[in-house]
Amino acid sequence: MIALRSSLFMAWFLLVTLVMAIIFLPLLGAPRKATVWMARIWARMTLWGLKIFAGVDERQVGEAPQGGVLVASKHMSMWDTLALYLALDDPAIVLKRELLRIPFYGWYLNKTAAIAIDRGAGADALRRMVHAAEKILRQNRPILIFPEGTRKKPGTVPDYKPGVAGLYNHLNVACVPVALDSGRFWQGFWKYPGTITLEFLSPIPAGLRRREFMAELETNIETSTNKLLES
To answer: 0.90 cut: is pTM over it?
Structure first.
């Protein structure tokens, strides 16, 4: 049954993605807001299919932040990006530049939400990331970053990268940690019925020292995430 439901969702996901990517291709030449409108519909349809075909529902705990703020989230699956994109108000997402090279997906991502970084560029990558993030804050939009830089399976030892501290210190804004447990239900191709929890935690105020900020961020996210995984 799990294999069948996972297959049905994958078929739905591929169909919706392919059809919408082709039909709405002209939006890449339109104002960004039009592409954002399409991307949100695609995300909603994907999560709708996840619920209908695979039995994976969702719930949100806490209030999603509004305006120019830094949001740092645990990352376990593709679900995280979709759900946070819908929960936040037109966020910009810090991601690796390689994703923008994917046909269609990368084109839309670049137009709607990307703050792309080149991991091999060192300090220059941080400068470019901060510069792009400053533009987003002037638009009063949130910035979403996954501080471990990649997806982590539940129970994996955390590995928080310094990029989130660089953004936090340079932008001088509050940071909202996010805990989740999507890795229990979305495991690559396999989808297991249940309810994913997305939890917005108390903001970390601006102005902390780098080491203090990183310790508080990791403690808050990991403690809350482990509670979700154990529930």
So the answer is: yes
Asked whether the beta carbons of 95 and 117 are under 8 A apart, the reply is yes
Domain 56-230 belongs in CATH node 3.40.1130.10: yes
The residues, ordered by sequence, that sit 6+ positions from 138 with a Cβ below 8 Å of its Cβ are 68
Query: For position 188, what pLDDT does the model report?
Result: 94
Strand 143-145 relative to strand 70-73: parallel, antiparallel, unpaired? parallel
Cβ neighbours around 77 below 10 Å, total: 22
> Taking the mean position of all CA atoms in its chain, how far away is CA 175?
15
Q: Best-predicted range by mean pLDDT among 5-19, 23-37, 119-133? A: 5-19
Query: Terminus-to-terminus CA distance in the chain, angstroms?
Result: 24
Q: Is 4 exposed, middle or buried (0-12, 13-18, 19+ CB in 10 A)?
A: exposed
Residue 142: which residues within 8 A CB-CB, separation 6 or more? 65, 66, 67, 68, 69, 70, 71, 88, 89, 90, 91, 92, 136
Q: 111 or 138: whose pLDDT is higher?
A: 138
Largest separation between any pair of C-alpha atoms in the chain? 51
Asked if 72 and 179 touch (Cβ cutoff 8 Å), the reply is: no
Classify 91 as helix, strand or coil.
coil
Domain coordinates of the chain in residue numbers? 56-230
Q: Please, what's the b/e burial string for 144-153 (b: 16 or more CB within 10 A of its CB; e: otherwise)?
A: bbbbbbebbe
